[in-house]
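Example S7 (structure tokens).
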């Protein structure tokens, strides 16, 4: 679906609704200069709160501040497939090794893994020691 901004002498400006940056910028321009905030909100499907968040972002950082950013952590996961396989391997080689020892061995070979990550992996794969009373 296309979003149309009415222009002079039938020269309409068409925006693809999948173009997030263009939609946001057009909404701000129209809301601020021509059709008003409430009409722009209805036309573009944003809330008033989001409109003012975008307006503030635009005023502080320009159009680049309106670009959608990836959500989630920027950190790379510590428990990669290779690390998980190493934890399982070390657990099978020595079932009585503590999580501290496994974590230390992984750190020695270059994988920075916390004791808690080792515990979590062992629990997820059901590799806990069986206690005998």
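Recovered sequence:
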């Amino acid at each position: 679906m296309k979003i149309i901004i009415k222009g002079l002498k039938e020269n309409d400006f068409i925006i693809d609704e999948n173009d997030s940056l263009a939609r946001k910028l057009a909404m701000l321009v129209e809301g601020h200069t021509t059709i008003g905030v409430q009409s722009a909100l209805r036309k573009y499907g944003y809330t008033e709160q989001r409109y003012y968040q975008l307006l503030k972002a635009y005023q502080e950082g320009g159009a680049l501040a309106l670009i959608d950013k990836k959500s989630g952590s920027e950190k790379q996961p510590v428990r990669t497939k290779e690390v998980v396989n190493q934890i399982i391997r070390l657990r099978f080689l020595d079932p009585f090794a503590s999580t501290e020892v496994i974590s230390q061995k992984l750190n020695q070979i270059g994988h920075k893994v916390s004791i808690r990550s080792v515990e979590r992996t062992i629990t997820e794969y059901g590799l806990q020691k069986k206690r005998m009373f």
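Notes on this example. The chain is about 55% helix and 5% strand.
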